[in-house]
């Protein structure tokens, strides 16, 4: 089955409202209109409403970078998935290594978030990835299998088939030291095999798997040429309109 490539920018904690709006205005009408690629921008929650309104009716889709797993209640500082859906947000990034490390998110939290996102008609971009220590110990495959197994438990076949999984080796994030395209393909293959083991071949052939970690316009084609890589989750190189558009243009 042909999987549609998906390029998602993750702005992390960058930009002001003015800069976010300027980005959307510069990008939204310049997305390649052949629909060969899904184009997503992951913004801080503060700018989501503005971005959804600006991107309305265009090819640009908007993602949150996190949400809580309850829809409402006494959870000071958290973001409701129901409110995100109400705004018109399409995707939510969950389980990013920065959230796992700095905010102590567990596989169980991330699993609850995945369920809440589906319950609110949005699509999770589920991140997994290993530390340099795990990589150097040759334990990447078992680490990834465990993150996938625990993170997706209880989801339906249909849900897993429709989601996006981003493999991001932590040692390649923001370091300029991207993983070799063959390594990215191998580990994205581990993700796909794990999904196959848990949910069957049809689901594993449908789920879209991104590579993330120092992806830029100059190297994205190498990743996209690989069998198991269906797209990229991009931090630094997604911040400027020209660079974001160049990433999209590079997807053949
Ligand atoms: O979510 C995106 C990743 O953490 C990659 O960030 P980067 O492209 O700046 O290395």
Automatic annotation (TrEMBL):
Keyword Isomerase part of the UniProt annotation: yes
Localization of this protein: Cytoplasm
Keyword Isomerase: yes
GO biological process: gluconeogenesis; glyceraldehyde-3-phosphate biosynthetic process; glycerol catabolic process; glycolytic process
Pathway(s) annotated for this protein in UniProt: Carbohydrate degradation; glycolysis; D-glyceraldehyde 3-phosphate from glycerone phosphate: step 1/1; Carbohydrate biosynthesis; gluconeogenesis
Catalytic activity: D-glyceraldehyde 3-phosphate = dihydroxyacetone phosphate
Binding site for substrate: 10-12, 174, 214, 235-236
GO CC terms of this entry: cytosol
Family matches, as Gene3D superfamilies: Aldolase class I
Catalytic class of the enzyme: isomerase
Principal cellular location given in the protein's record: cytoplasm
Short name of one Pfam family: TIM
Active site (catalytic residues): 96 (electrophile), 168 (proton acceptor)
Subunit record text: Homodimer.
PANTHER family attached to this UniProt entry: TRIOSEPHOSPHATE ISOMERASE (PTHR21139:SF42)
Family: Belongs to the triosephosphate isomerase family.
Function: Involved in the gluconeogenesis. Catalyzes stereospecifically the conversion of dihydroxyacetone phosphate (DHAP) to D-glyceraldehyde-3-phosphate (G3P).
Name of the protein: Triosephosphate isomerase
Species: Vagococcus entomophilus
